[in-house]
Amino acid sequence: MADVLVVGSKVKDYVKSKGLNSSGDLVEALSKKVERLLNEAAERTKANGRKTMRPEDL
Length: 58
Known about the structure:
Blueprint: H1 8-17, H2 26-47
């Protein structure tokens, strides 16, 4: 497994606050989705000739 980019306990607490349970693989799946989002944002940042990623790159 690659690096986890989200805080597992925070994700689980958030899901629980919604009155739901979280499966054991939820945190890993969310982390992969965050990684994809950041990779896409990195490409947009580079395409715009910048080295600083901004919220609009997301």
